[in-house]
Amino acid sequence: MGQFLTPASVAQLMAGMFNRLDLPEISLLDAGARIGSLLAAFVAKVCQQRKHTSSLRVVAYEIDPFLIGYLHQTLELCKRECEDVGISFNYEIRETDFIEDAVRLLRVGLLNSAMPTAVNYATEFTHAILNPPYLKINAHSQVRELLRSIGLETSNLYTGFMAATAQLLKPSGEFVAITPRSFCNGPYFRDFRKMFLETMALQQVHLFESRQEAFSDDDVLQETIIIQATKQRQKSSNVIINTSFDANDDLFMSHSLPYTELVHPDDLEQFIHIIPDKISQQIVQRMELFTCTLKDLGLTVSTGRVVDFRAKDYLRTNPENNTVPLIYPLNLSNGYVEYPKITKKPQAIVHIKETANLLIQNEHYVLCKRFSSKEEKRRVVAVVYDANQFNYAYVGFENHLNYFHKNGRGLSITLARGLAVYLNSTLVDAFFRLFNGHTQVNATDLRKLKYPNLSQLLSLGTGIKEQFPSLREIDELIENQLLSMSNLSENNPIATKSRIDEALQILTQLGFPRGQLNERSALTLLALLNLKPTDSWQLAISPLMGITPMMDFMDQHYGKTYKPNTRETVRRQTVHQFLDAALIVANPDNLSRPIKYLLQAYQREKKQTS
After folding, report:
1. Confidence band of 383 (pLDDT split at 50, 70, 90)
2. Residue 469 gets which letter from DSSP?
3. Rounded CA gap, 500 and 508, in Å?
4. For residue 39, is it within any domain?
5. pLDDT at residue 410 is higher than 60
6. Domain check: are 479 and 556 in the same one?
7. Strand, helix or coil for residue 45
8. Is 306 within a domain?
9. pLDDT digits (tens, 9 = 90+) for 133-163
């Protein structure tokens, strides 16, 4: 059914995001309750308030008969908890499809709206908490038709649940949901964004550094976020963006973002731009210097035409007579195409009348992978397809590739190299990760990207030969050729991001477990070395430093502002592990004062390691 049970840590985090839990009467909607983890966390939070509500009503939807028994038990426990603190509690489990019932209620509400004395039971909820099912829905299915009847065209059930839940809220009602991030951009969810943002005002967004941890028991790789919104047309001046490694991590990085930067007022697509920190803002600032679209450049990007399972009768393991190359993502290597390659994938396709429409002329192109994961080092991976390396008239690009072309024909080799350099830059990769929450790099995403002008791309490509530049060399080219004359802030976000990545690599090589291989640990190491983003590693020193100065260092030099009350997490989840691994020592001079830390044996090893 596309359902994933909510871990307790996630449920507690979500319940803590509500602002108005002291209303005299609270009515809560849980549209996909399962065993009741979310509503239980909400009830616990209400019971902990100094000023208690007098009445709490819960409506829980669940259609899985196996889970309903557990849901009854959870709600009975909630009732007992409320009685202990003097809150009147009642609940209703609706064993019916939520979308069907929501549409029915909303239709009744529309009828009642014409009758001034009628009670509108459709919008009866002051609060809603939601972990909606994640499931694609067929264009001709009943649920698709039901959603169309309330004005929503969408391809996934989770946005249907979100839209219907929002419509069932009272004015000023609060909404907290954990969902895939994919609704924030792309054409598939345009209608949903317009509907949701018209009636709901986003107040908070919570991001997770790790895609895997929020639903680790279910191996969910979709990037998830938590949003908190209020049912009102008036938007807040700012939205709070919080980030943590996972739901168990109480070290929150917090960033206040103007609403107009989150959703640009003149953006017809209503993309939601989630910018979590100062470094990300600087990345956006740099990308705004590039104003060209692919159309301006006379280029376009398309998805590879060969869907291998549909063309399997024409595929060959190795090149033969009457075949042409078939290029897969695995052929992309070090900026160019490695062909043929020893692999289980076929490396050739027969060139006959039946395959003619699957092939394109053997000319220069730029190829880009369509699929990657957040944990991969690069989200955007592009290479040059150099036609001079292939003695064929045509070539086939497999469907998991995008290819850049000019009206169906190739590019000049210089332009192809310049475009590939730009796409492979840390700047583009970091920008893309900010606004792309799904696992794909679609042609649509690449069309939305802004590019340098034609002369700048040609200039980038002029010095590139058979040896494609390294990432460090690419970033230097971007900085020196495209950004050096720009009026930018002093801080260089690419240097900052690269330095954090380098610190992470060191912790990995030192053998730290996955729990410490995160941005928090990398920043702690850099603080203990007093190493700023543009400093050479040889300039590292080892000052005695406490937790608060470490966090001040992260804020001042790396733009990472953590909530002041989370410093204990740095001590508990990073510094203690550094102590256990003998990477650092506490108060090495044995003086009686608040604990400060020093990198173990740093001075002795510095000369060798530098």
Report:
1. very high
2. P
3. 12
4. yes
5. yes
6. no
7. helix
8. yes
9. 998 888 889 999 999 998 888 889 999 999 9
Buried b (16+ CB within 10 A) or exposed e, 332-343: beebbbebeeee
Q: What is the pLDDT of residue 593?
A: 52
> Are residues 447 and 561 part of one domain?
no
Closest CA to 272 of 335, 204, 352: 204
DSSP for 17-28 reads T-S----SEEEE
Per-residue burial over 192-205, b = 16 or more CB atoms within 10 Å of its CB, e = otherwise: bbebbbeebbbbbb
Contacting residues for 231 by C-beta, under 8 A, at least 6 apart: 166, 169, 170, 171, 172, 173, 174, 175, 199, 200, 201
- For 170-237, the three-class secondary structure string (H helix, E strand, C coil) is EEEEEEEEEEEHHHHCCHHHHHHHHHHHHHEEEEEEEEECCCCCCCHHHCCCCCEEEEEEEECCCCCC
* Total structural domains within the chain: 3
The 3-class SS string of 308-368 reads: CCCCHHHEECCCCCCEEEEECHHHEECCEECCCCCCCCCCEEECCHHHHHHCEECCEEEEE
335 close to 461: Cβ distance less than 8 angstroms = no
- β partners of residue 169: 125
Q: Which residues contact 427 (CB under 8 A, 6 or more apart)?
A: 283, 286, 287, 475, 478, 494
Closest CA to 568 of 582, 554, 547: 547
Do 104 and 195 share a structural domain? Answer: yes
| Residues paired with 301 in a beta bridge | 404
CATH at 62: 3.40.50.150
Q: What is the pTM of this model?
A: 0.75
Q: Which residues is 419 bridged to in the sheet?
A: none
Kindly state whether residues 497 and 471 are assigned to the same domain: no
Asked whether 242 and 253 are in contact (CB, 8 A), the reply is: yes
d(CA 345, CA 273): 38
Select from 449, 483, 517 the last residue of a domain. 483
The count of other CB atoms within 10 Å of the CB of residue 142 is 12
Token pair belonging to 13: 């985090």
Tell whether 461 and 527 lie within a shared domain: no
| CA distance readout (Å), 608 to 17, 383, 538, 602, 603 | 49, 38, 11, 10, 10
Interatomic CA distance for residues 325 and 327, integer angstroms? 6
What is the pLDDT at residue 122?
54
Residue 539 counted as domain residue: yes
Indicate the range of 52-56, 289-293, 374-378, 522-526 predicted with least confidence. 374-378
In a domain, 261, yes or no: no
Q: What is the pLDDT of residue 542?
A: 84
Whether the CB-CB separation of 91 and 68 falls below 8 Å is answered with: no
CB distance 228 to 17 below 8 Å: yes
Enter the tokens of residue 604: 């002795």
Verify that 545 and 497 share a domain, yes or no: yes
The domain of 119 spans: 8-236
SS (H, E, C) 484-501: CCCCCCCCCHHHHHHHHH
Of 436, 454, 483, which one is at a domain's C-terminal end? 483
Residues 97 and 205 in one domain: yes
What is the mean pLDDT of the segment spanning 549-574?
82
Q: Are residues 28 and 85 in the same domain?
A: yes
